[in-house]
């Protein structure tokens, strides 16, 4: 009579490749019940034909993703129209292990309007050309002007500082233009007419600053002045 022969496992095969290409997975190996095959109604090999172990290839790439937009910031202007901004970060999650960065902008802008209209201060235009002289001969006046309209003050803005006009003397000379005479400065007083006692001093001026020409008026007044002078009392002989 033949006795039953229980089967026996053969050697384990090599570990197979990891089940994933990154991160943590599993590797398997196999064995066959062929070291001695079960005979004569003997029992099959006891245990599992497969064995598993954990394998770690390395961290998987993580692509970045945007966080939520922040609240809008304050308007860049305190009146009229400006710009407001908001931001977001590529941290939901951040890119890691060679993952791709977020696509798009990290900032966003939009126009914003403050209801109050901005004040505009006035500014002068350039001066105009000087006007023609107020006389055709002799000394007259010429003027020039400017306007507070570059720009004009609006919405409570300040008016331009300074005058909107100015004037200057002008001289027109033509043949036959009457020129009134004017006195020169007085000369120094002459020495006293005596060396002792009471005498006289004089001084002079001329109608030559300028001299009257082309029918202009002569200088008014006298061209000389006298005054008394006193020298030490003379000694009697």
From TrEMBL:
Disulfide bond among keywords: yes
Signal peptide feature range: none
Keywords (A to Z) from UniProt: Disulfide bond, Repeat
Family matches, as InterPro entries: Compl_asym_regulator, TSP1_rpt, TSP1_rpt_sf
Family annotation (Pfam families): TSP_1 (PF00090)
Superkingdom assignment: Eukaryota
Keyword flag DNA damage: no
Record-given protein name: HMCN1-like protein
Species: Mya arenaria (Soft-shell clam)
